[in-house]
Amino acid sequence: MKNSLHLLRYVDNDSVVHHLNPRAKILALVTILLVMSFDASWRAVAVIWTIAVGGALVARLPRSVTPRPPRLLLGAIVITCLLGLLAGGEPYGLGGLILQVRLFAFTIGLLALSLVLGWTTPTADLPVAAAWLLRPLRRLGLNVDDVVAGLALAVRALPLVADEFSTVVTLSRFRKRTFASPIVAGMDLAATATTATVRRGIEMGEAVEARGGSPTARQIEQSPSVPNRWGRPEAVLALVVAAAVATVIV
């Protein structure tokens, strides 16, 4: 559905991007996020959108996975751009508007990269890649096990929470409107969504305890269902990331 939230929803397809090592994809995304965050220029925006759109085309993702932004978000963007226009600035009094547009393009581009990763990587593979990426922090005495276990539960729970929230919003549209104030109606909707989310969390916690507790980072990293393969596609991805970083830095 066009209005469904497809965040971290795996879209099954037979493409090079889908078959990439999830460790390589996570490492590439983290590298791009870290480097681009220090230089939110138009060049960085162009590089980010080129990688995001190119990755989506190579992965042959259907258009139906693209979420439609809510009207409230679009209204906030329009208002912010108007405020930037009123602020003026060079060139030709459009400096504030250009800055706001660049900020939105940069932020949405990073979000698009994350969405492409979620659409082309099974949810169960993400904690495995995170455990591999955080492994060097174990030498610094950090408790990597709790971080990875929490990340694994959060990744698995996010689609469930999104479903619950979508269900609550859909059902609220069919309820008889008894609230005179939109603030009260919003509070009622938030309370209902929170109750449904907490119920989901309790059910997940009971399921984890029934299976003997959360696994350690080593157990997650060594999951046999996620092969640790490194080949030509991963080398091509490394070259793409290196070229992107060099384009922004140089």
Write structural notes for this entry:
The protein starts with 15 loop residues before the first helix and ends with a helix. It has 250 residues and is an all-alpha fold. It is built from ten helices and no strands. It folds into two domains: 1-122 and 227-250, no CATH class; 125-225, no CATH class. The protein has helices at 16-19, 22-37, 42-58, 71-87, 95-120, 125-133, 144-174, 182-210, 217-221, 232-249.
Label this structure with key terms.
250 residues; mainly alpha; 10 helices
Q: State the order of secondary-structure elements, H for helix, E for strand.
A: HHHHHHHHHH
Major sheet attributes: none
Structural class by secondary-structure content: mainly alpha
Total domains: 2
- Unreliable runs, pLDDT <50, ≥5 residues? 1-5
Number of strands: 0
Give me the number of helical elements.
10
What general form does the structure show?
globular
Mean pLDDT: 77
Helix share bin:
55-70%
Q: How many angstroms does the end-to-end distance come to?
A: 42 Å
Chain-wise SSE layout:
Blueprint: H1 16-19, H2 22-37, H3 42-58, H4 71-87, H5 95-120, H6 125-133, H7 144-174, H8 182-210, H9 217-221, H10 232-249
